[in-house]
Amino acid sequence: MFYNMSNIMFLMTSMMASMMAISCNSWLISWIALEINLFFFIPIIYMYNKFNSESSIKYFLIQVISSMFILLTINYWTMNKQYFMNIIINISLISKLGSVPLHMWMIQIIESMNWIQFLLMSTWQKLAPMILMFNFFNNILMKIFILLNGMVSAISGMNQMSMKKLFGFSSINHLSWLMLTSMISEQMMMMYFSVYLLTMTMISYLLFNFNTWMSNMMMNKKKKISLITISMIFLSMGGMPPFIGFIPKWITIQMLMIKNYYFMMMMMLLFSTMNLYYYFRLSYLILILNNLKINYKLKMTSKIYLYLYMYMNMSLMMFLLINLNF
Q: How many domains does the chain have?
């Protein structure tokens, strides 16, 4: 599906538009770049199957309404009328991100996506609005959204039976950590985003190769993917030590303690523990409930996946620990 010239063209143009939105000093040019990104990302959503037209329309309407408010805010900005400007533009960008309380549109449309589309939606499409929101930082409003994202994602993910919805709420939880790191520094935010992107890419690649929805909890033998590797990546996604997903959270917690944000730190630890619970549950279902069907003698393809992930995990951990100076 994804490996044809039209999809590659749409994807590359969408990514270039996001980079243009981030790098421009003019808010008007950034707004135009966001619209170009929207224009070329909608065909990527629609091309998976014919039932994606509803998802494409929902995504289009949410993004267009948010963009209208951003354009309105830019107009007031140029007229030096800044009353509520900061709040309006933050809420508009929050809507584009699929953040709580404006998150249900994202949870609804990801059900009709495949895992590669979900990867793009939960990672790259969030980058430009996040960095633009960093320029309109509102401390009180940001803390409210961080706590709402952490709480809603932790509670809502507990009773999810759909793998995509579970990862949708997980992406909202990681969004709360991205917002939290943006309060510290842009470098911290980019470090967390890079680790999240790497882990999410691995998960999406593995799940993209599953043939049916039943494979959400079982190994696809035709693909010969190691269950151990999948479980390790799931636990890394939840922030389980000593995996790579734990390192950015650990560093963020240290920085919060330095800045005396103890309440925020305790709440985020609580929400992350709840988030980690359903990754434990997922790993348990994969490794234990399916144990009669597991072939513990790993074949060469499975060993390559396992060793590659372990090597990348250890290398990135060492790199972050050596190069981060406090």
A: 1
